[in-house]
Amino acid sequence: MSDKTLFITGASSGIGAATARAAADAGWNVALFARNQQKLSAIADEIGTDRALALPGDVTQYDEVAAAIERAATHFQGLQAVFANAGMGLDTPGAEHGDPEEWRAMMEVNVMGLLWTTRAAMAALRASQGHLVMTGSVAGKIHLPGSVYGASKWFVHGFAGNMSQEMREWGGRCTVVAPGMVDTPFFDEPKPDKLQPEDVAQSVVHALEQPRRADLRELVLMPGN
Fold first, then answer.
1. Which phi and psi (to 5°) does residue 5 adopt?
2. 149 carries an active-site annotation
């Protein structure tokens, strides 16, 4: 068993699943959190159940996130990093014709899920002087016409900066990874010419592997085209 453990939300597919594989290849134990137990178990079996732990749960429910983090920290005897990756988009993106119930569901994941994960992880990360990584977006750095999704990612970037300031006081670090368009199930149609989940995963591992003297707070990743 490694002495480095990473807890990942949204770990059943896309960026989360790719990061689990990349982190395991880099020597990390990985605790996998998402709603789909079947997918989580398949990824854990692929990585190896001595190094990966499947923890099904809903990121919008604080008690479920907190219980999973506690279980991961107990199972692997500590927690050195958390990747708050869970997120969702919108079928009707504009502000004028968007669906308020869809907005509410997205905010529960993109904003409240991030807050619940952070709150639940703080004690374990403080104990290890650990690292919190968040999935932001280029949409959280630029203005897009009427984009409610983009506004949720502006929150992520702002909150990540605030957590960087807080965590540095006790030796921790916070990084927001901001990709452009990524070919994941987030989109209805494949985007093979854009970033791949593995590209973002390598960026997350790069941030985690930085020496203590290097506080990498934001990493922006754009498709080459």
1. -130, 135
2. yes
The residues spanned by each domain of the chain are 5-221
Distance CA 79, CA 169 (A): 19
Query: Does the predicted TM-score (pTM) go above 0.90?
Result: yes
On whether the CB atoms of residues 29 and 23 are closer than 8 A, the answer is no
* Residue carrying structure tokens 């907005």: 103
CB 44 within 8 A of CB 53: yes
CA–CA–CA angle 15, 201, 210 (5° rounding) = 145
What string of DSSP letters covers 21-80?
A: HHHHHTT-EEEEEES-HHHHHHHHHHH-TTTEEEEE--TT-HHHHHHHHHHHHHHTT---
> According to the model, what pLDDT value does residue 1 have?
60
Q: How far is CA 64 from CA 11, 29, 43, 61, in A?
A: 15, 20, 20, 6
> Which of the four CATH numbers 3.40.50.720, 3.40.50.2000, 3.60.130.10, 3.30.70.1060 does domain 5-221 have?
3.40.50.720
**How open is the CA angle 39-86-147, to the nearest 5 degrees?**
130
The residue from 149, 157, 164, 178 that is catalytic is: 149
Give per-residue pLDDT as tens, 58-92.
999 999 999 999 999 999 999 999 999 999 999 88
pLDDT in tens, 138-169: 999 999 999 999 999 999 999 999 999 999 99
